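Per reviewer request, we include the raw input and output of the structure prediction for the construct analysed in the revised manuscript.
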Amino acid sequence: MTQVLCGQYRPHHFQGVTTVVNQLFTLTKPHLAYFGQKDYQQLVIITQMVKDKNISTKIKSVSIARDPDGLAMSSRNQYLSSSERQSALTLPKELRKIKELAQQSTEKALKYKKELIKKDNNWQYIELLDGYDLSRLSKNSSKVL
């Protein structure tokens, strides 16, 4: 799970995240912890860590909060120029399109993803993965990320 998506561009990042979160949970023993879907990979990894280490904290998923224009609320997005923000707005639009296609057919979504990457080189990556464990999609995948 740590080697795909942004993990492939940020080696050891999730090792640090899980170390810090594990220590925090060990010290504070919270009943609940809330993690946002904006950082879905982190949410899945923390959920798996809690399961693997038999930590009693229940992980709750929080929906992505978006600005009125559709861009995800993020401290980093506040630093975008107007033109950068306009460019970034293609992300939620294209992700909605991929989601719609994936609901019809995974093959259609994968084909559109390939076309999108060919026509626009601003994307670092676009992946369609199993939403439960971040593995490659298979016929048994019931949740597509």
